[in-house]
Amino acid sequence: MRSAIHVDKLSKKYKIGRGSQTLREHLTSLMVFKNLRNKSQQDTTLWALRDVCLSIQEGETVGIVGRNGAGKSTLLKILSKITYPTSGAVKVSGRVASLLEVGTGFHEELTGRENVFLNGSILGMSKKQVRSQFDTIVEYSGVERFIDTPIKRYSSGMRLRLGFAVAAHLDPDILIVDEVLSVGDAAFQRKCLDTIESLRAKARTILFVSHNLTAVENLCERSIWIDKGKVCMDGKSSAVIREYMGSVRQVKDASTALGGTENRRGNGKIQFTQVELLSPEGIPYKIIRSGDAVVIRLHYCAHEPIAFPCFGFRIYTELETMVTEVGTSLHNIYISRVEPGEGYVDLEIESLNLMAAKYKLTLLLTDMPGHLVYDIIEHAVTFEVEAANLYQSGRSSEGLGIVFFPQKWNLAGMSGQAKYAPSNLKNPSQSLPEPASQVGRTTT
Amino acid sequence: MSETLAIEQGLGARRSASDFWRYRELLVFFAWRDVKVRYRQALLGMAWAVIQPLFNMILFAFLFGRLAHVPSNGIPYPIFSYCALVPWTYFATVLNLGGNCLTGNASLITKVYFPRVLLPAGTALAGLLDFSIASLMLVGMMFYYHVQLSWTMLLAPLAVLYMVLLAMGVSMFLAALNVRYRDIKHVLPFMIQLWMFATPIIYPATMIPRQFRPLLALNPCWGMVDGFRACLLPHQPINFALLGVSMGVAVVLFTGGAYYFHAMEKSFADII
Q1: For residue A425, what pLDDT is reported?
Q2: Domain ranges in chain B?
Q3: Do A84 and B111 touch (CB under 8 A)?
Q4: Which is higher by pLDDT, A404 or A432?
Q5: Residue B168 to residue B78: CA distance in whole angstroms
Q6: CB contact, 8 Å: A16 with chain B?
Q7: Is the dihedral of CA B257, B259, B265, B268 positive or negative?
Q8: Is A221 exposed, middle or buried (0-12, 13-18, 19+ CB in 10 A)?
Q9: Is the pLDDT of residue A424 over 80?
Q10: Residue A126 and residue B25: Cβ atoms within 8 Å?
Q11: How far is Cα A332 from Cα A354, in angstroms, rounded to an integer?
Q12: What is the mean pLDDT of residues B145-172?
């Protein structure tokens, strides 16, 4: 496959500081002594991009993530020919449409109808194209009733919808989208993502910059993490996003040492010393996401030989709802004897089916019947679970409760024509049963 | 449409020319946008297109024609000055609007790609509407003053072309300059005012002493204004050699303005 975008050692430098903004200042600065001028030029340059190399094939959907000020927008601007490199080369094959802002070129005094044509032309559509798709565009935007009113009367939401409606009907070879999802309500963001999905189905090349990492992970097989003008990581989205998220969170290990904590009771003959949250390979997690395989390692220290202890813990939400209680006794594990000294027990969880939120652990160390308390620490550890692409749909999992289950829907029982939305057809590996009657596959 | 585009430190001239053609519809849209906004109320807009040069003409006819008895080459002063005021008003408008067209559209320039030259070109195109309306008035006046038809009137479109190119050349230069040095915007009205007096609009070129005339020839607007007069009015004493110099300067300004604009174009989004 040909490379649609090829970037080779791209660098972009900006001058910071005021410089001479007016002709008068510039002329006077020319008369100042030369050495005074040189001094002021030292730290006035900023390298927005430094030797960036990447290559994107036709038909790929690539996500670009990074903190604010990392250089993502600069890269997009260079690819869109809005600004030019200081050094390095960029090769772009195909027609590019850039969506760096929605509603570019809207003029307040013109009506919605006139702005659709103006905006369409600015984005590179011909008048004929706009005219032929005009009705679809207006319908998509939902502002049909107001299409002949000047847009200075529109609400910000209407403006956004109209602007995006025009952009959604571009049909470029390469689409570059820059954080347009950061504004707009959930319905609007949903529409944005659906449009991008449909372009993906048409095998267009898409570059997608967003801070909505769930959406990025769902739409893009490949992601690039850019930090301080350099490419930090370039590969599979899940891995890149995990690394990126880990760097953004405070690097506090998801392991806590427990010294003498309050909320602690028990005779202390055997005590918890530390809790670690590890990956199945034994590496401490920087961040934990819903559905991850987690090993919870409970370190203890026994001061004397202990017979038949029972290790366990309870998970609570921030609002003190108990989610679950686990313990070795529930598995009928009889630990006959624990020698004095340090050690640990691991609880291996295949899939942490908790939604993104903060949780607290209350640690329990008792004897088998549960009467004798060795060590109970209330809310010993707080850990945070991050959002993940739970149902492979890119939808956010906020407000959907505390837990989720591995699941799939089966629509075989529906009578008549069942309609499948494009996203359902994305994963042929998920075995969807063929419905009773023939489906009109609605791939847009 | 999959041509490979290599983006390096700027776009070459050939690429810019083909882009200009590809975006030609946008040029019309920009002009249409300016016109639509100004002519929101159609009658008021049209009236304003006429009032400006007309009012100037009335004022000058009274002050200079009547009071100061400025000579007017053997034709009534009102039409003498109005004939020059019509292209001058176009020139001044395009300069004023065009000088600010880049900074005024800063949000477009930083967010979307299109050949930036479409902005000053759009202003030049939009100005033609006002010019056309003022010209109708001029035609009316020519009938009123019984100006004879002459074959030179066929050259009028050339004079118009000259006017457009001159206005575009200077406004491209000023627009690009304004992006870099914001005080140009403040200098502009003053500069245009001075320029008007340096151009033989209210007075005939013959009023200038002979030794200073070559200096006057360096003013490209002279070629524009006297060119119009030469086309439309009879028996104008035109020094064609000096007029040629003036036109030559205009050509230089146009190419220089276009070149400067193109050279600065790649940095617009960075410094605007």
Answers
A1: 46
A2: 13-271
A3: no
A4: A404
A5: 28
A6: no
A7: negative
A8: middle
A9: no
A10: yes
A11: 25
A12: 89
Sign of torsion, CA A219 A225 A226 A228? positive
Tell me which of A4 and A395 has the higher pLDDT.
A4
In the prediction, which pLDDT does B118 show?
93
Per-domain boundaries in chain A: 3-248, 255-386, 408-444
CB contact (8 A) between residue B112 and residue A78: no
Between chains, do B108 and A109 touch, taking CB under 8 Å as contact? no
Closest CA to B239 of B220, B203, B214: B214
- Among the listed ranges A251-255, A435-439, B18-22, which one has the minimum average pLDDT value? A435-439
Q: Between residues 110 and 129 of chain A, which touch chain B (CB distance below 8 Å)?
A: 110, 114, 117-118, 121-124, 126-127
Task: Give chain A positions within 8 Å (CB) of B269.
Answer: 77, 82-83
Decide if B194 contacts B41 (C-beta within 8 A).
Answer: no
* Closest alpha carbon to A396 in A161, A180, A216: A216
- For the stretch A361-396, pLDDT in tens is 999 999 888 788 998 988 888 888 888 877 777 776
Smallest Cβ distance to A23: which of B9, B107, B183? Answer: B183
**A3-248 fold:** Rossmann fold (3.40.50)
pTM, full prediction: 0.75
Is the pLDDT assigned to residue A196 strictly greater than 60? yes
Class of the CATH-defined domain A255-386: mainly beta
Residue B52 has pLDDT above 70, yes or no: yes
| CA-to-CA dists, residue A89 to A52, A207, A258, angstroms | 10, 18, 55
Q: Give B195's contacts (C-beta < 8 A, 6+ positions apart).
A: B219, B221
Chain centre to alpha carbon of residue A429: 24
Backbone angles phi, psi at A206, to 5 degrees: -130, 135
Are B269 and A77 within 8 A, CB to CB?
yes
Q: Do B7 and A78 touch (CB under 8 A)?
A: yes
Per-residue pLDDT of B177-232, as tens digits, reads 999 888 888 889 999 999 999 898 888 888 888 888 888 888 999 889 988 888 88
Q: pLDDT grade, residue A14 (50/70/90)? A: confident
- Would you list the DSSP string of A248-313? HS----SEEE--S-SSEES--SEEEEEEEEE-TTSPBPSSEETT--EEEEEEEEESS-EESEEEEE
Identical fold, A3-248 and A255-386: no
Amino acid at site B247:
M
Looking at the complex, does the CB of residue A234 fall below 8 Å from at least one CB of chain B?
no
